[in-house]
Amino acid sequence: MASNKKYWKSVEELNENSSIVETLRNNEFVEQIPVDEFLGDKEALSSSATSRRDFLKYVGFSTAAASLAACEGPVVKSIPYVVQPEEIIPGVADFYATTIADGFDFANILIKTREGRPIKVENNNLEGARTGANARVHASVLSLYDSLRLKQPKIAGNNATWGEVNAKVKAGLEEANAQGGAVVLLTNTMASPSTDALIDELKAKYPTVKHVIYDAVSDSNALDAFEQVYGVRALANYDFSKADVIVSVGADILGDWQGGGYDAGYAKGRVPKNGKMSKHIQIEANMSLAGANADKRMPMNISQQKAALADIYNAVVNGASPKNAEIAKVVNQLKSAKSKGVVVTGLDDVNAQLVVLAINSAIASEAFNPTKAKLVRKGNAKEVSQLVDYMKAGKVHTLIMSGVNPVYTLPNAKDFSEALKKVKLSVSFSMKEDETASITTIAAAAPHYLESWSDVTIEIGHYSVAQPTIRPLFDTKQFQEALLTWTENSVSYYDYLKGFAASNVSGKSWNQIVHDGFAMNEALPLVANTVDFSAAVSQLTSVKNSGLDLVLYTKTGMGDGQQANNPWLQEFPDPITRVSWDNYVTISKKDAERYDLKNWNVANGGMNGNYVTLKVGNVTLNNVPVVVQPGQAVGTLGLAFGYGKKAALKQEMQVGVNAYTLYKNLTANQIVTITKEAGEHEFACVQLQKTLMGRGDIIKETTLEIFNTKDAEVWNPVPMVSLDHQETPTTEVDLWTSFDRTTGHHFNLSIDLNACTGCGACVIACHAENNVPVVGKSEVRRSRDMHWLRIDRYYSHEETFSGDVELKEGTSGLLNSVSTLSDMEDPSENPQVAFQPVMCQHCNHAPCETVCPVAATSHGKEGQNHMAYNRCVGTRYCANNCPYKVRRFNWFLYNKNSEFDYHMNNDLGRMVLNPDVNVRSRGVMEKCSMCIQKTQATKLQAKREGRLVKDGEFQTACSAACTSGAMVFGDVNDKESQVAKLAEDERMYHLLEHIGTKPNVFYHVKVRNVK
What does the record list as coiled-coil region(s) (predicted)? Predict the structure, then answer.
């Protein structure tokens, strides 16, 4: 039945005499489409070089616009620029050089912005840059858009203005000055010379001001040792590219040791060139990234490590013979290397740090560089301890904190909280209303580093600048701006910084420094003091083991925990354990059997484990889950910092236990007791297969001796298949028709297993570039993680992978083979470790393409395997037919879904999304695209500039993030390109080459220097 109801679009239509209504009735479109603006000028059109294709574009535009105007759709209101900034071109990315300095991570980086939004971190590759963005640095851009950030200052828990905050602080400073009360600035290591100058000016105005530097994870013992020898509170610097023999005692030189950033230099010596590569010997308790990459790994408890270090010193400096035969071999190699050797330590002991400085000085190590000492960790544990005592005694009138959260990170946090009540005025500059900011008088909302100006001295003689890449999102103020206000200096911090830089940097203008991100100054040589090291050696040898050693450490993903609300980092699988969304105590297999502790796999593919209680002194940490860790030294346990936070975190991110409670005296090595508890813990582990089980065609490896003395067919054999009953190389057999791929670009990705350290920076970079969703612990546990790139980690069953191959090949008979392979699933107590990044291999003969019923996945002429999401109907045939298992199925809509309350569920978090890559919906397959948007942008840029693409310009997110040089991307049709030369290298092989998929990703055989 027809409806007689009448509808009005507006009240104006009720007025029958309205001229507006008449106009709307006669016009199909409310506003005329401005086609005449670009087609109506006859002279301009005739004199232009407009092609037929361009003309059709214009016609297409007018037709499409008319069609769009005729349809009813949702109204999206956009506010255009009133005055568009000259540097912003819609659709074109801008890059800004800046520096991250959050008290734990320090690096020169580039920030990619789109339409004014920072969306990605890149490495600053200018010569002289102190770069090396790790997984946390790449993820830091997402922390900018944290919806739980402190959005304005608060006084006593109530919203306040900055005028009220400054008035209250100035009144407190004046009162403290009048009464002679102590004013303490408690900050993290800012390494900012301009901020130090501002603090000095505050001290001049208020003489009772004292500055205490506190780092949550302390390097105080190493700082004390270096200061004792060289007179400067800094950390020794190292260039591992200059070392032929590297001996590390408890130092994760590929992790966060001394601020990190050593992987690039390390990798240069690890790739065999001219028959040579460096030798790396690792002595440690926890299995670390450095230990996993070492040629020789020696698990030892803390007292054994100290004794080994003393033995090395006595042998190198005094000529004594080591008591331990393995240490004797280490000493012989170190002596043979002479100045090409280097010794480092991560032992949290001032005597150990002194001994290492003495050894490197004695051998005149070229890799050891005290002149360029690092200034990235300057915390003083003794002064922090004294501060708490002074607060307890009521001697501190005003406490102003910036970049620290002692109520969470101090082991005696309860004492600090109680003592804080005796402080008359307390201020916390923080991005979050965290454990500390929530109980201080004033919670001062601090900006993210991408909203701030600053300067940083990462090492002596190196000056960096941090610049904002977006206007402040909230009502925040920098600590430096507050210092200027409190000293009644009316100049802005930007102007102050600009003037400071001009007087401290020569040879570069301010604009040039901001453009490059850094400048170099001449570093004055440091002169070593005369120190008697014999006492330090005696102290090391007198240490006796008195129980289980607890080794506290920082994870590659979580670091010191300040980015605990970052879902990219929570979902990031630990490179060693492959566990995400958790921390846990690691224990050796032998100790696990002693305490009846286990891990086991359950029906849904997840991993479970027992709980324990840890006790250090009088402090107890309950219900800590256990991971039985291959390679963990017997008599030791490992536990990571950074978890167990509650304040200012989303519920999903409140995971793990707080290891800082066991960080007695800010020392990472503690004596601990352990007790098994009831219950079982559910882990989100992305890789349950721990060993290769002798499958040498997945990770190919050899020794340096065989590599130098045998032909390539011995250590890198080409797989053979049967063709007409004849053994034929698989490279000569095709099931598919081949095409001529020599015309145009053809992209390949090279991955060198010798250079890959397993750090995972590429994983987070891929997340940021390609809008990869976060799915949460529950989904990861169901093997539904969405990572486009994974880094497989394998242990050997025997002590070496070559031993595994020999064991497997030595089996005969079905029962014997089954029994042997079953045993080989169990890793060695001290295994060799191998890392292998695996993403879509972009096969030229792709099995996924032949089984897709709707042609959603197809091959491009440039070698990329494409995914048309709109065509995909989610059959998952392609995933079943993929031998590499790299295709991911969207089980849910992760965008704008409250069930997945991460950054894609709120408007602020979605600001990080890359507009060049669409956000996928549920029910489709997705996988690595070889960053086709980046290759297209590179080609268009070269086209605009009328030139050929240069080698090195083509990049994927993973290759650009790889600071070790393990990943190289490029056009193999350019025979002068680096990737084309790597494709011809004798070490090159394809993953599962025997199945004939002909991938466009290739690997290089891993070579170990085990002699």
Answer: none
pLDDT for 633-672, tens place per residue? 999 999 999 999 999 999 999 999 999 999 999 999 999 9
Q: How far is CA 595 from CA 67, 416, 548, 587, 879, in A?
A: 73, 35, 12, 10, 42
Query: Where do the domains of the chain lie, and which CATH numbers do they carry?
Result: 154-218+379-504 (3.40.50.740), 221-374 (3.40.228.10), 546-685 (2.40.40.20), 715-793+831-1008 (3.30.70.20)
Q: What percent of the chain has pLDDT over 90?
A: 76
Indicate the SS3 state at residue 345.
strand
**pLDDT tens digits for 773-826?**
999 999 999 999 999 999 999 999 988 888 888 888 888 777 677 888 888 888
Q: In 3-state terms, what secondary structure has residue 606?
A: coil
Task: Tell how far CA 20 is from the center of its chain.
Answer: 60
542 φ, ψ (degrees, to nearest 5): -85, -10
Q: In the numeric block, which tokens belong to residue 379?
A: 């915390």
Burial zone of 86 (CB within 10 Å; 0-12 exposed, 13-18 middle, 19+ buried):
exposed
> DSSP per residue over 592-635, as a string?
HHHTT--EEE-TTS-EEEEEEEEEETTEEEEEEEEEE-TTPPTT
CA distance 834 to 702: 12
Side-chain-side CA neighbours of 205 within 13 Å: the count stands at 16
Pairing between β-strand 279-284 and β-strand 790-795 as defined by DSSP bridges: unpaired
Helices 302-317 and 325-337: crossing angle in degrees, nearest 10, is: 50
Amino acid 22: pLDDT: 64
As a 3-state breakdown, the chain gives helix, strand, coil percent values, each rounded to 5, of: 35, 20, 45
Cα separation, 868 vs 853, whole angstroms? 13
Residue 38 clears pLDDT 50, i.e. is over it? no
pLDDT for residue 266: 95
Q: What is the pLDDT of residue 91?
A: 83
HSE-CB at 99 with a 13 A cutoff on CA atoms is: 30
Q: What is the pTM of this model?
A: 0.90
CA-to-CA distance for 215 and 641, rounded, in angstroms? 13
Q: Assess contact for 281 and 294: CB atoms under 8 A.
A: yes
* Residue 113 to residue 93: CA distance in whole angstroms: 6
The type of residue at 1 is M
Nearest to 824 by CA among 920, 947, 695, 658: 695
Which residue has 């992209």 as its token pair? 747
Classify 600 as helix, strand or coil: strand
Name residue 587's beta-bridge partners.
Answer: 628, 637
550: left (phi over 0), alpha (psi -120 to 50) or beta: beta
What is the spatial distance between Cα 552 and Cα 638, in angstroms, rounded to a whole number? 6
Q: Output b/e per residue, 327-348; b: 16+ Cβ within 10 A.
A: beebbebbeebeebbbbbbbbb
What is the rounded distance in angstroms from the CA atom of residue 811 to the CA atom of residue 817? Answer: 6
Mean per-residue pLDDT, 420-443: 95
Q: In whole angstroms, what is the distance from residue 318 CA to residue 533 CA?
A: 12
Q: How many residues does the chain have?
A: 1011
d(C-alpha 469, C-alpha 99), whole Å: 11
- Up-side HSE of residue 958: CA atoms within 13 Å toward CB? 31
Six-digit token pair at 524? 């004055």
- Which residues have C-beta within 8 Å of that of residue 421, sequence separation ≥ 6? none
Sequence-distant (6+) residues with CB within 8 A of 655 are: 570, 581, 582, 583, 643, 777
Q: Mean of the pLDDT values across residues 965-990? A: 94
Residue 725 backbone class (left: φ over 0; alpha: ψ -120 to 50; beta: rest): left
